[in-house]
């Protein structure tokens, strides 16, 4: 195991680790309708539209065209940040800040669209602290994709073998390993602390 000199967080859900049932119980009270929404609207297709760099309004417009009978709930989804982010500040965020304050070489990778990421930065000042963030919507890459790991390495002059990649998606973790990075799967802050400690990193 190579000494870890760089840490890369995928911040899609690793840092903004939320419980979707909290806001959507309020936004879409009917359980059957909420399940339909998750199955048909809140899907990977939505994330792909965001990854392609479309604004919220553009992605929302596509969904309204596809599902006009569900316009109210789709528009409510625009409240994503206003409803969901207040629930997101948990131990994983504190752990991230601790690594930064400790002087660790930390960068971030996200599939947020640029406008969404700017909203997050306004709410979470720590998102401005790391030395860099790759926003895949800006570079027209979609995760998980080997190219985005390579882009991140080039952008921030990282050494793949000395980089620890942290993500809550097993597919992304396997992709990072295939790109030559060390990688761990994020499930909760306590487990992540243990995984970091095994690599000689305490926080």
Short description:
By secondary structure, the chain is of the alpha/beta class. It has helices at 21-27, 31-40, 44-51, 56-66, 71-77, 80-84, 91-101, 114-123, 136-139, 146-156, 170-178, 189-198; strands spanning 6-10, 106-110, 133-135, 163-167, 182-185.
Provide structural commentary.
The chain has 203 residues and is an alpha/beta fold. It contains twelve helices and five strands. It has a five-stranded parallel β-sheet with strand order 3-2-1-4-5. The longest helix is centred in the first third of the chain and has 11 residues. It is elongated, with a radius of gyration of 17 Å.
For the structure shown, list the relevant keywords:
12 helices, alpha/beta, 203 residues, 5 strands, elongated, five-stranded parallel beta sheet, single chain
Reading the helices and strands in chain order gives EHHHHHHHEHEHHEHEH
Distance between the termini: 20 Å
* Biggest pleated-sheet summary: 5 strands, parallel
Residues in helix, %: 40-55%
How many E strands? 5
Sequence stretches where pLDDT stays below 50 over 5 or more residues: none
The residue-averaged pLDDT reads: 76
Nearest-angstrom radius of gyration?
17 Å
- Please tally the helical runs, counting DSSP H or I stretches of 4 or more residues: 12
Kindly estimate the percentage of residues that lie in beta strands according to DSSP.
Answer: 5-15%
Instruction: Identify the strand order in the major beta sheet.
Output: 3-2-1-4-5
